Amino acid sequence: MGVRPPRIRDPKQFPVIGVDDHLPALPAEVLTAEALRRRFAENRAWTPEFHGDAKLFAQWRDPMAASVLVPLVERDDGLHVLLTRRTDHLTDHAGQVSFPGGRADPGDVDMVDTALREAHEEVGLPRERVQVLGPLNTYSTVSSYVVTPIVGLIQPPFQLVLDAFEVAEAFEVPLRFLMTPAHHQRHAMDYEGVKRQFLSMPWVGIDAQGRPREYFIWGATAAMLRNLYHFLR
Question: Rounded CA gap, 193 and 214, in Å?
Answer without folding.
Answer: 31
